[in-house]
Amino acid sequence: MLGCICIAGCDIKSKNAATRQSQEKARLRLEDMQRIAAQTAQTYKAMDNATLVKKLAEQSVLKREPFNSLAYRELKGRKDVNSDSLVALIRERKNSDALLPLLLLRRLDERTYAQLPADLRASVLTDALQQSKNFNTWGLPHLYLEEASKAMLECDGSAVPALKRMLSETRPAPVFGSKERMEYLRYKYRLCDYALFFLKRLQGDTSFVMPLSVEARDSLIRDILK
Amino acid sequence: MKKKIYPQLFRLLSIAGIAFICFLPGCQPTQECGTWTFTGTPGDHSFSVSSAFDFTPATCGKECNCTTDCIIQMVWVYNEEDGTNVYASDQSGASARATSNGWTIDQLDGWAYAYYGLNNDGTFDTGYNPPGSNNNATTLFDTPGGWPNNTLFYALDVTVCYKSNTCENRILGYYFWSWSIDNNGNSTQFIAAPAWKDLDKQFQDAVTGWNNWAPTSSSQDEGGGQPVLPHAVTLPTLTDL
Q: Labelling B80: which of A63, A116, A183, B150 has CA 20 to 30 A away?
């Protein structure tokens, strides 16, 4: 009886019982997941720096974006991270697996970051670009650049040979998101387009704007490869 | 004596129980001064959406001549493997302006306004959100996608009166929609329904998050010949009609 009366009452307010049940299901699931997300964040907050750096190294191998790496999110706000531990990871790996430590070092300790050899930074960044499955780490070249892209543009000529090799790679460079995804679909980005963008900017064309048309981009790529 | 008290107590507790259950947030609808027409089509790790709101103030017993209405969308994206919210970008300030529960206004970096389809020059991008008015629906278009398996996507669409002599900045309706990508990569619609109380509060929190972040944001350049604004623009106070 209780259930019947309740459902009837909810019917009036939510137009029908099915809607009410859907709302309730969604609400409960949302609350569950919000609780888990809060617990996860708390777990990371409670970790010491050494443990977090270890997690950061793992999440770098998993190709998490910096802003979606729980370890990166937590470490970027800490003042007492040992730069040497990050440098050690970068020097040991020298490739895309060191991207998160590299970007964290750039954010937390600019001076130590600048002291890293340019070719080492370029090696990590270009390998990360080459290995990317989703390109959120880099941003959308016609709209905004994420920190990894800004780091790439600081590499001078060291990144150029690897970027030139990527000019022939036409595999898609997808971006996940809402409007971000729609912009990716509009431009139909490929790995070679990201390489083109970085090369143009690194070669001094600081106002280079990415053409919308794939054909126009292919033409620019052909010019560079001549 | 005791035998007489127990049935009365039972009746009282029953009524209290019914009242409690029926007034749970899921039972209380949010403002709905019109009709939502929602279409969601699952694709490969994606979900194509058309979310239209036809404003008819009589629906909620109000009067308002709104010459331009449009939609603000807030989203909540969650990865079950990591047990955390995920964001598409850092530059858009999405995580910085998210609420403590992970809801954030859905807007691209470079777009200065929180209104989903409003360009920096004050015109609407009809590919994203053609505006509406009384009895003329405004429609939000979105194709979220590309996330890995085990991702859940929740969205709340909020129609606001953007231009009016009498009811500018009033909220006209709320709609909730959701979809997920399972462990095998299949996309399915979860629930799409009128929103419930509490989501309106979450929305206000997301607006506060946007407004706190906007003045601190860098210059906003959406490209395409649109003006570059010095930073994102705060939203006005938005209240239910």
A: A183
